[in-house]
Automatic annotation (TrEMBL):
Region of interest (Disordered), ranges: 30-56
Keyword Signal carried by entry: yes
Cited PROSITE patterns: PROKAR_LIPOPROTEIN
Signal recorded as keyword: yes
Keywords, alphabetical: Signal
Signal sequence region: 1-24
Top-rank taxon: Bacteria
Phylogenetic classification of the source organism: Bacteria, Pseudomonadati, Myxococcota, Myxococcia, Myxococcales
Organism of this sequence: Pyxidicoccus fallax
Name of protein: Cytochrome c domain-containing protein
Length: 357
């Protein structure tokens, strides 16, 4: 499930906003320079629309419309400005919005003019597109959009084919973090609370007390006096970015400082539980706590490699494995192998590849 994600994902995500704006300006300038909207693109850009040069005529239009639209349509219900392929599949070659060769009957043009039928007569809502042109915020005119639709080429054949260059990254939700971490670390509810006691719902829970339990406030069997008897359990979940429908609390779509802080504590506490749990091969698969880098270096390396793959879903690059070994495992091993494996496990959980999907 995680194999498609690129290591660069998080970094690219962070830099996208900056480069996108710069590209938008360039594209606008280009459109105004070009001889006419019907021109076939003489230099198709091989980089698939990720660089500043528009990849195609459609890409020019996308980048030129972007200042007026992308604020609301990069993400959300209608993410048609998320990428060139989103723009083409969602808007350009979606008959509902663009009728090839027929601008007058294209909803897109009607929306720009503010006279579209239906719930959304005008885009952007509440503002005339022409005013944006007049103010210089966008330079692509409605006439140019019409001319582009009139001469719109047929959709490329590979339109529906998934492209390996396209990726979307988002943070894991708090629910996903709790569930996948339990699974990866070989932990169950029983490691935190005693559900096997027939009377567990009616007793103040003390079993495995203080093990940094994190659980949604609105999940079954959470709505018992038992689970919520430690209010911190739910508070931690909310700090992790989780919502609570019982309290009208929305989940947090970004990964902020409180989520980071909670994940640090949670990763350390839960990795500790996983290492200490008897007969649990989740973290200690090829080593025991008696194996050290001096006594059994191969087993340590093998287990590091295994743990990386288990937590992040892809094999480590040699350099990354080396860094993990030298900067995380070894310094902690001088205190104890137990600490070394807990620390390594927790470091992987804070890795961008673990946090994103
Ligand atoms: C201020 C925010 C905002 C801006 C700017 C904006 N839109 Fe929208 N757009 C919306 C909202 C809200 C909807 C309704 C769907 C949704 O919930 O996202 C919508 C819906 C749409 C739809 C789907 C309509 C339907 O009936 O299916 C299209 C197509 C669209 N917008 C195109 C555009 C284009 C093109 C631009 C730029 C010229 C633009 N939008 C600018 C907020 C915006």
């Amino acid at each position: 499930m995680r194999t498609l994600r690129s290591l660069l994902g998080a970094a690219v995500l962070a830099s996208l906003a900056l480069s996108f704006t710069a590209c938008t300006e360039q594209a606008t300038a280009r459109i105004n320079d070009s001889a006419g909207p019907g021109d076939p693109n003489p230099n198709p850009d091989p980089d698939g629309g990720t660089g500043c040069e528009p990849a195609s005529k459609n890409d020019e239009i996308r980048l030129a419309l972007a200042p007026a639209c992308e604020g609301c349509h990069r993400i959300g219900n209608v993410p048609i400005f998320a990428s060139l392929s989103a723009f083409e599949t969602g808007l350009v070659y979606n008959e509902r919005y663009v009728k090839r060769g027929d601008p007058a009957n294209s909803l897109l043009v009607q929306m720009l003019k503010g006279n579209a039928p239906g719930s959304y007569p005008q885009m952007p809502p509440g503002q005339h597109y022409d005013e944006l042109v007049a103010s210089g915020r966008v330079t692509l005119t409605i006439e140019q959009v019409e001319a582009w639709i009139r001469d719109l080429p047929a959709p490329p054949e590979q339109l529906e084919t998934p492209s390996p260059e396209e990726f979307r990254v988002r943070r894991l939700s708090a629910e996903e973090m709790v569930v996948s971490l339990m699974d990866q670390l070989g932990l169950t509810l029983e490691d935190f609370v005693s559900t096997s006691n027939a009377d567990w719902r009616n007793r103040a829970y003390v079993v495995n007390w203080n093990k940094f339990f994190v659980w949604p406030g609105d999940w079954s069997p959470g709505i018992s006096g038992e689970y919520v008897s430690d209010q911190r359990t739910i508070e931690r979940f909310e700090a992790l970015g989780g919502g609570n429908s019982l309290q009208y609390r929305k989940k947090d779509a970004i990964f902020g400082p409180s989520a980071g802080q909670t994940l640090v504590q949670m990763s350390q506490a839960w990795c500790g539980r996983a290492v200490d749990k008897r007969n649990n091969p989740a973290v200690l698969r090829y080593v025991t706590l008696a194996d050290t880098s001096a006594r059994n270096p191969d087993a340590v390396q093998k287990n590091l490699r295994y743990l990386y793959l288990r937590m992040l879903g892809q094999p480590p690059a040699d350099a990354e494995l080396k860094a993990l070994y030298e900067q995380v495992y070894l310094p902690l091993e001088s205190q104890s192998t137990r600490l070394a494996w807990i620390g390594t496990c927790a470091a992987l959980i804070r890795h961008p590849l673990w946090i994103t999907y």
